[in-house]
Write a structure and sequence with these properties.
Radius of gyration: 25 Å
Largest sheet: 7 strands, antiparallel
Number of helices: 9
Structural class: alpha+beta
Low-confidence stretches: 1-18
CATH superfamily of the largest domain: Jelly Rolls
Bound molecules: manganese (II) ion
Number of strands: 28
CATH architecture of the largest domain: Sandwich
Strand content: 25-35%
Number of domains: 3
């Protein structure tokens, strides 16, 4: 079926007594409108529509014919989240409240201007982070009274175990932006244990007794509403922030993920970070995947847990197979969150003209995946043949080694 021409769009709109802003604007420029139809199925959408969203979701508007059945929503964009703006930067979150399927993992996207501080705090969930932009100084101590101070840049990670108190501060020249991942979908960035909050809700004589100083010493502690993410002077060198006499934490809370030697294929790379290379990160493991245009993260699944994704760069579509004939396809671009429920088969295809980069994140101490191709290659060929009726050439093309990213 042909794309409707400018004339048929105008005629249809006029016949319906309806010329929406979207159809009128498109008719004037002579652009073709994406329509929810494929040969022999569907029809045009002459009524009200959000054209920008339709264009971002070509595989929702015109699903592959192989899609079938009802799957929960597996995509949410940080662009659809409320942004909390403070004097030192901003934050927004995608939790189970935004993406209902994500019961085990929540994500936060935060910007700290140069000098901007995420107030000293702690929380029940463990915190894993990936640096997206700029540089930051992070601090923490553990329950043994061992301390941690480090500077992190793009591609670096940190991990703060549950209950461990910490801070983050943007450095020169332009602060930082990062992704936080928490091992609890119910996590709420607006509901953490803040340093100033506890001071404000403790009687003055108790503070006096606790610290062994006069109660008047605490008269200038600001209201928690003034901190949380607040502007402060940019700190000095990392060396100047080391605490004299402090014992460093036994397992470092930071890790240079981008510095890891990647698994390389013709069309991409994969870096895997779990406790085998970042021992502190006990509850979160991750893979950083790069796929060249036309390439694809191969058909696979994870035998241990759900997958939570963050798209860093480029554009993609992901097909998810949910058993019982159910399958759905979702589109993603930078800043989007994706989700794959436990054990469901999936692939992620680069649908753009630039490299695709995304994170696969798991609530697990270890990374694991099963490759469809490798499974078939390592199964007696007669048995595979009895199932799929493949010819000899196709059977011979199966890979006994794993190729996580395949070419177009
Ligand atoms: Mn935190
Ligand atoms: Mn996966």
């Amino acid at each position: 079926m042909d794309e409707p021409t400018r004339r048929t769009v105008l005629a249809a709109a006029a016949a319906g007594g309806l010329l929406t802003a979207a159809t009128a604007a498109v008719a004037q420029t002579g652009e073709t409108l994406p329509q929810p139809q494929r040969p022999g199925h569907g029809g045009t959408d002459p009524g009200p529509r959000n054209l920008a969203r339709d264009r971002q979701n070509p595989d929702l508007l015109v699903p592959p014919a192989t899609d079938h059945g009802t799957l929960p929503n597996l995509r949410f964009s940080f662009s659809d989240s409320h942004v909390r703006q403070e004097s030192g930067g901003w934050t927004r979150q995608v939790t189970v409240r935004e993406l209902g399927i994500s019961k085990g993992i929540a994500g936060v996207n935060m910007r700290l201007n140069a000098g901007g501080v995420r107030e000293l705090h702690w929380h029940k969930a463990a915190e894993w982070a990936y640096m997206l932009y700029g540089t930051a100084r992070i601090t923490a101590i553990d329950s043994q009274g061992q301390n941690f101070v480090d500077d992190v840049g793009v591609g670096d990670l940190w991990y703060f175990p549950s209950g461990v108190p910490h801070s983050i501060q943007g450095l020169n020249p332009d602060g930082c932006e990062f992704l936080l991942v928490f091992d609890d979908g119910e996590f709420d960035e607006d509901n953490t244990f803040l340093l100033s909050d506890w001071f404000k809700h403790t009687p003055n004589d108790v503070l006096s007794k606790n610290f062994g100083v006069p109660g008047a010493s605490f008269s200038k502690v600001p209201d928690p509403s003034e901190l949380y993410i607040f502007a402060a002077p940019v700190p000095g060198t990392l060396a100047s922030d080391k605490i004299a006499g402090a014992t460093p934490v036994s397992e470092t809370f930071s890790h240079r993920m981008l510095a890891q030697q990647p698994i390389k294929t013709k069309s991409g790379t994969v870096r895997i970070t779990d406790t085998s290379v970042f021992p502190a990160s006990k509850t979160i493991s991750a893979a950083l995947v790069e796929v060249q245009p036309g390439g694809m993260r191969e058909m696979h699944w994870h035998p241990n847990t759900d997958e939570w994704q963050y798209y860093i760069e480029g554009q993609a579509r992901m097909g998810v197979f949910a058993a019982s004939g159910q399958a759905r396809t979702f589109d993603f671009m930078a800043g989007d969150v994706g989700y794959v429920p436990f054990a469901m088969g999936h692939y992620v295809e680069n649908t753009g003209t630039t490299p695709l980069r995304f994170l696969e994140v798991f609530k697990s101490s270890y990374y694991a995946d099963v490759s469809l191709n490798q499974w078939l290659a390592l199964t007696p060929p007669e048995l595979v043949q009895a199932h799929l009726k493949l010819d000899a050439q196709t059977l011979a093309a199966l890979h006994k080694d794993k190729f996580p990213v395949v070419p177009g």
